[in-house]
Amino acid sequence: MIRRSAVTLAALIALVALPSAVRAQSAADSAAIRAAALDYIEGWYEANGERMARALHPELAKRIVNTDSSAHVWVRDMGATELIRDAAAGGGSRTPAAQQRKDVRILDVFQNTASVRVDASTWVDYLHLVKWQGRWVILNVLWEIRR
After folding, report:
1. What is the third-level CATH fold of 20-145?
2. Which single residue of 71, 80, 87, 95 could bond 56 by disulfide (Cβ 3.0 to 4.6 Å)?
3. What is d(CA 142, CA 124) in angstroms, rounded to the nearest whole number?
């Protein structure tokens, strides 16, 4: 009896110790977050501006830290309009299908925010999503080229 109580107590402690983000995430939210991330990366590969637009918040900030040939470090910013236009103009459509990685991993969800990692062909995107007007959309992207 004492052993069973100890096991039950340990199970309850483990359940309470789980991050609230894990418990707060619904299957519907997970599916919608994944769908937004896939609209983003597949929209890029398909040169589909409409699909890209569906994934993004209008105030998207996409950034990468670059270093030029003179060792000058700077941040390249891109907004939703530019990313949608670039996707529609061809985007990643020249990337061979065999190289079109689109691995989506939800890292964390807390209430109306989520963090997602997308492993793409030659880069990795870290996405911040927000549930905006009932839809999950990408608000921020920080990305890095694979070296």
Report:
1. Nuclear Transport Factor 2; Chain: A, (3.10.450)
2. 80
3. 9
